[in-house]
Amino acid sequence: MKKVILLVTLMVLALGVLSIAGGTINYALVSDITTLNIWSMLGPNATSWNFYVGLAKYGSLYTLSDVTFAVVPSLADGMWTPLKKVTEDGTTLYVTTVHLMKGVKWSDGTPFTADDVVFSYEVPFKLKIPGNWMSNLDPTVFDKIVKVNNYTVKIYIHKLSGKFVYGVLQSTIVQKKYWEPIYKKALKQPDPAKYMMSYGPILDEPSIGAFTISKWQKGAFVVDKAVPNYTFRGQQEIEYANGAVRYVTPSLGLDQTFYGKAEGKIDNKFVTGPYVDSVIFRIYQNQSAAIQALLKGTVDFVLNPNGLQKGFVTQLKADPNVKIVNNPSNGFRYMAFNMRRYPMSLKAFRVAVAYLVNRDLLCNKILQGVAIPLATVVPPGNSFWYDKNIKPYGEGMTTAQRYEAAIKTLKDAGFKWLVEPKLKNGQLVQRGMGLIAPNGKLIKSIKMMAPSAGYDPMRATAALWIEKWANDIGIPIVADLTSFNNIVSAVWDQKYNFDMYMLGWGLTIYPDYLRDFFYSKNGINPGGWNAPGYDNPKFDKAANEFIDQTNMNKARKYGYKLQEMLARDVPYVVLFTSPLVEAYRNRISFEYTKVLDGIQGTYGEKAFVKIVK
Amino acid sequence: MLKYIGKRLVQIFILLVVYVAVVFFLLHSMPGGIKAMLTTNPNLTPQARDSILHAFGLDQSLWVQFLTYLKNIFTLNLGVSFSFYPTPVWSIIAERLPRTIFLFATATLISFFIGFSSGKSLAWKRGKVSEYVATIIGVITYTVFTPLLIFVLIWFFGAYLGILPINQFLNPDLWVNTTFDAQTVFLYLLLTVSIVGAAILFSFIVAQKVSHRVKTKKIILYTSTAIASALSIFWWAISPYGIYGADIIWHMVLPVLSVAIISYAGTMLVMRDSMLETIKEDFITTARAKGLPDKVVRDKHAARTAMLPVITNFVLSMGFVVSGGLITESLFSWPGMGMTLLNATLAKDYPLASGALIFTGIFVLFAHLVVDIVYAFLDPRIRY
After folding, report:
1. HEC assignment per residue over chain B
2. Closest in B39, B45, B334 to A135, CB measured
């Protein structure tokens, strides 16, 4: 009875909210889109601009929760069943059963069924459509999908892997009814994949999301129209401090909770819309034009994967009708040691350098807030995977304390100096000179390659300060500010020809990069991702366990273990991440603005955005 | 003449082959490359990366890629764009070209006529205040930093006065319910301009044949121009595209004004200098001695001779019209060939970048040929 009352209340609330909804909002894109064809969009045309406009109309079995990024069901009814080992024609496979939500409809009224799922998995897999399709349905993982009944499918995979969860289970679903005739025609072509990717323009393709694309005026604008019969309209997403995520879906009569019990403090609570009739994406050819449009009120929000440039932020802050939000981007700038070379192979040496890097001073004072300090390989914003217990070397220390800690670490490991650095009353009174390694040899020079100021002033500045701090205690690091291509060439093309380098990575939510970047075998052949040459059998073992997990709670435990080992052994010294600054007019409001990678990372929160003025 | 044209065509062909080779190898020698871009994308598995490289034909050796490309060029196949895969390069050029031609051809024509007329008049009134003022203004606009001028115009007309649109080539609010695309309207606009232009040219030729009296010629020319213009305006007024064509033209005012201000001075200064040289010639003194009216001496005798270098500039500028203008296109959000070339180069989209460059190259080479032919018509002393 309680559930019925709750559902009725929620429905009334949802209807109430929706009754005041409507209107059109305008988003600015700073580049043109290149396709609306999903095969191409997730293939060679995988650009942020295409995703902003087109991706939300498709579904997937599982997705990531808002803000916390936990894997949760989307079109699936509950979590997948534990994988079971089976043998088919002498081949060992693992199989899981996924139940689908009943009552979900496409925008043309067609019910969503297992046929759509099977079709959406089989077509890209059989046609070997490149790009994200192949990454999601990786042939080394995915084997086949079988329809059990209209609302149940079985998925077979070759091996247990996290890619099953973040790839296979999150692969995009299209409508079979719409695409099947096109697919049949494609099969008669010499290159069916190319035919599928070039089919279009597609404006009549039904949507299973909150919006569908109704118009694309090339070079000028795209219109996303709200789907009136969107199944998940009014769905409540409640995120608890204990990690539990609860979904209440009045239209389907569902109330499901994942990752624990729905109890205790609530961190986030969102109600799905759409609350507007349409979103017009106006296409501008440069950020300046988009900012002018924002100031003029022509657009309400500027979508850009890199956020706003600093000069524009200052200009926008002066407008009382514009709100500025600042979020860390999902990536990091880092410094790597070549652990194949001496003394970078010594943990004490790396730890000493790690102690010296004063991120707070660097980011907040020297770089004046244009960078956000970051000390961990998994950024805190990726809250599902981030290990809160990681304590980076030197955290909370002053520069003098850092010097002391670094000197002590080096001394303890057997390093000596010709002239030993000295500190008195928190001041460096004598700079160190002539660092002698534990093997008795004088360390002459350690070259640290970093991008020049023309390419990235933040990293160039960081490199010069790290050089200074290191030189202060006698570590002869020499910052070599050079072109990005020179660094990439030295690190990857010339078989790890470097002492230290400074670069950056853009990251994914699923941190499989923990293994990719540091797995010992990835550092043997030229071009491997493990550029530092980190070789730790315990890490390798844990990394394999992590990557093989299909249970995300267990995977998280291994993920934490990996993060701890990396924080301790420091093959990388993570330095900072760049803030992603965004601006929107106060005519609209978003359900949340504090999120890793900013509002743009959610493709503009189309299902949540409201007109408030 | 025909022999000369044939010889020039062979030269153009050889130049084109060299040009294609230079463009191809120059683009492929750029640092980075699409392979590096894909390698640093953590979303792609190695297999997925290789499959993209295979689809793009980048898994073959550079020489094989070049020979294939050369063969394709001369069978009018510019290949498939990487960044719009699998859209053919021709389709992308066909989409962008009308926007570029309409904007830059209009601006070039306007700047040519203003520059030609003012240069002619200034030289004729040499030594007067108006000449000095116009020359100084011309030098300033000719040498001004283009983005600065555009920003000033945008601020003044778009932001301060608020009378002209400053971004995009149309107003999405107006176009949101249309069933046709802007490309169709651009093509109709170009067709209209071409028809009106052809009508004017035809009436000019007819006027030359019908009468030797300047007044009669003018009446024929102006009347036919007025009729052709009125008919085209009428067609646009009754057509469903009318308001949309007007919207595009309205959005074009500021970009055209910017381009015209920047480029008219070049024509004006060249024409002025050329006129100053020409009016010192003996045949001008003779014409004056014959008692011909000043205007006739200026327009028919001096200007016709003086316009040769201006015509060269004009025809070559028309050849370059297809390449668009990066700064104008970018600052006014008018996506045309200039932005296409820039974005393709940044994205290492070799087929699209080389396609855009080769397409421009063909037009410029063709423009050179046109200049040679036009010279023979304008100056009876030139014979090939």
Report:
1. CHHHHHHHHHHHHHHHHHHHHHHHHHHHCCCCHHHHHHHCCCCCCHHHHHHHHHHCCCCCCHHHHHHHHHHHHCCCCCCECCCCCCCEHHHHHHHHHHHHHHHHHHHHHHHHHHHHHHHHHHHHCCCCHHHHHHHHHHHHHHHCCHHHHHHHHHHHHHHHCCCCCCCCCCCHHHHCCCCCCHHHHHHHHHHHHHHHHHHHHHHHHHHHHHCCCHHHHHHHHHHHHHHHHHHHHHHHHHCCCHHHHHHHHHHHHHHHHHHHHHHHHHHHHHHHHHHHHHCCCHHHHHHHHCCCCHHHHHHHHHHHHHHHHHHHHHHHHHHHHHHCCHHHHHHCCCCCHHHHHHHHHHCCCHHHHHHHHHHHHHHHHHHHHHHHHHHHHHCCCCCC
2. B45
Which H helix or E strand runs over B116?
Answer: helix B89-124
* SS3 of residue A27 by DSSP: strand
Comparing A91-100, A379-388, B62-71, the range with the smallest average pLDDT is B62-71
Q: Is the Cβ pair A506, B32 closer than 8 Å?
A: no
Q: Express each pLDDT in A378-428 by its tens digit.
A: 998 898 999 989 889 999 999 999 999 999 999 999 999 999 999 998 889
Inform me whether the C-beta atom of residue A451 falls under 8 Å from chain B C-beta atoms. Answer: no
User: Which residues 338-397 in chain A show a CB within 8 A of chain B?
Assistant: none
pLDDT value at position A473?
96
Residue B366 is classified by DSSP as H
CA–CA separation, B339 vs A31, rounded Å? 10
Domains and CATH numbers, chain A: 22-56+209-233+272-328+580-613 (3.40.190.10), 59-199 (3.90.76.10), 331-508+571-577 (3.10.105.10)
Residues B335, A280: C-beta atoms closer than 8 Å: no
Instruction: Kindly report the nearest CA distance between residue A145 and chain B, in angstroms.
Output: 20
Asked if the peptide bond before residue B380 counts as cis, ω within 30 degrees of 0, the response is no
Q: Tell how far CA A278 is from the center of its chain.
A: 27
For the segment B140-185, what is each residue's pLDDT rounded down to a tens digit?
A: 888 888 889 888 998 899 888 889 888 889 999 999 989 899 999 9
- Nearest CA of chain A to the CA of B317: how many Å? 24
Kindly determine whether residue A505 and residue B331, on different chains, have CB atoms separated by under 8 Å: no
Read off the pTM. 0.85
Q: Nearest residue of A to residue B181 by CA position?
A: A217
Cβ-based contacts of A44 with chain B (< 8 Å): 52, 55-56, 82, 85-86
Q: What is the pLDDT of residue A415?
A: 96
The three-state DSSP-derived secondary structure of B151-165 is HHHHHHHHHHCCCCC
For residue A343, cis peptide bond before it (omega within 30 degrees of 0): yes
Q: Which residue of B has its CA nearest to A134?
A: B48
B299 DSSP 8-state letter: I
**What span, in angstroms and rounded, lies between the C-alpha atoms of B264 and B266?**
5
